[in-house]
Write a structure and sequence with these properties.
Layout (H helix, E strand, L loop, with lengths): L1 H44 L5 H5 L4 H6 L2 H15 L4 E12 L3 E13 L4 E12 L2 E13 L7
Antiparallel strand pairs: 1-2, 2-3, 3-4
Length: 152
């Protein structure tokens, strides 16, 4: 009986150590990606972040697709649709996984933007390697609304 307890404790310790080792490899990259994503998300809702500051965080394809004018248009659209975003929170870090192929080389950070009412925004920022460095490859902003539960 004692052997089972010792084996269970050792197994738990080994799993905890293994998870720590897995997380350590992604920590630096997560910090870098989070800084880039925070800059982008702030730029989408505030005029204080200029496009030239964002441009260095974009992949080559993203630089061609998302121009300074599109940033201005997106800001205006978000202001009209969502109003003032009162709070932004990072809620998830995902590694894209294909069941057949494994890790696809794309990371995603997910944010929630609270507007104060029943509406909120789900913001996804996708990263891929571009010339050996992790860069913003794409982003999406999805307006959402809290669904009220029907009365019983």
């Amino acid at each position: 009986m004692m052997k089972r307890y010792i084996c269970a404790i050792l197994l738990t310790c080994m799993l905890a150590w293994f998870q720590t080792c897995l997380a350590a490899g992604s920590g630096d990259r997560l910090n870098t990606e989070e800084q880039m994503a925070n800059t982008l998300v702030l730029a989408l809702f505030q005029d204080t972040v200029p496009y030239r500051q964002l441009r260095g965080n974009f992949s080559a394809g993203m630089r061609k697709e998302f121009t300074a004018q599109q940033l201005e248009d997106t800001r205006k659209k978000m202001k009209a649709q969502a109003g003032n975003v009162r709070e932004l929170a990072l809620i998830g870090y995902l590694k894209d996984l294909d069941v057949r192929k494994g890790y696809t080389g794309q990371d995603r950070l997910q944010y929630v933007g609270m507007t104060g009412g029943p509406e909120f925004l789900l913001i996804n920022v996708d990263f891929r390697q571009d010339n050996g460095a992790w860069k913003i490859h794409a982003f999406s902003i999805n307006p959402m609304k809290v669904q009220e539960k029907p009365g019983k």
